Amino acid sequence: MSVPRTRLAAAGAVLAAVLVNGGWAAPAPPDRLPPTKPTIDGQRQPTVLRPVFTFGATDRRTPRAKIRFRCGVDAAPLRLCARIHRPSERLGFGAHTLRVRALDLAGNASRVTSFSFRVVGSWDPAADFERAPRPANPGRDRYGNTSWFYLYAGRAHDPGTYTLLPTFSVLAPNWEVWLLQPEFQSASVGFNNGQMILHPGPPMPGQNAILGWRSPVAATVRIQAAIAVLQAAGACAVPANGVSWSLDRGAQTTRSGLLAPGEIVNLELTLTVAAGESLHLVVDDRNDSNCDSTGVRLSIETT
């Protein structure tokens, strides 16, 4: 006895409904759609050699937290990396390109996103000054290079005669200096309440106080400084003729001037320096060391 086709079709529909409602639906088609092109968040001009970047992407089937990323800097191949990524190796100063690709759980790969950034070298002698209990002369910069020198010399602007100040002293809270002699009445260079302080002169006039910086990189740098002859409370209590100052490149002076007690000068210039080349900020007492403590705020950055 044959079964009518209409009854067979109805039975098939019922069986399909049972399979679907019972969890036996046909498998979904393969996932062939890639994630979105990744986003990259990070500084365009970081001042650290291992800057941090954050990646993001979305996918139709893969949750955000399970999207994987591959990344590489410059010519390096793309390798698996975390959503919050810090390069494993220190980068050099200058321009770089970070490339990132997103992958979903099915292995589909997105288009590559490129992010251009420039690592800026940044030096600040007050921020870098190595204080007690581990002072150092020469001192290190934030990158670990031996870049800072606290020096004294006679009047000749000759780096071959510059000598490291030998004695470290904590004169007061937030006032730590390198001295020629074990008391403050001598040439000194150090840290004082967020700025550098240079004091030339006593007990013998003609002892210049010198802050030296040695470049760890060949680069063009922008130099900004504020130089001021400090006063304790109003006018200097004794006669004083101020200081002369200069910014030298080797034995050559690039900028110079005179400052009376209480005066300040702001300085800005751009120089191209070789790796290992030194700049020196020199403060001269002009044969009279009265009231000659000189505050210096200095920043050096690669451009």
Gyration radius, in Å: 33 Å
**Amino-to-carboxy terminus distance:** 93 Å
Helix-and-strand structural type: mainly beta
Which architecture of the largest domain per CATH? Sandwich
Share in β-strands: 35-45%
Largest sheet features: 8 strands, antiparallel
Counted beta strands? 22
> How many structurally independent domains?
2
Low-confidence stretches: 13-20
Features:
303 residues, Immunoglobulin-like, Jelly Rolls, 8-stranded antiparallel sheet, 7-stranded antiparallel sheet
What features would you describe in this structure?
The structure is a single chain. The chain is elongated and about 95 Å long. It has 303 residues and is mainly β. It has helices at residues 5-21, 125-128, and strands at residues 39-41, 53-56, 68-73, 79-81, 84-85, 94-103, 113-119, 122-123, 139-140, 146-153, 163-164, 167-172, 175-179, 188-192, 195-199, 208-214, 219-229, 243-249, 252-259, 264-273, 278-284, 294-302. It has two helices and 22 strands.
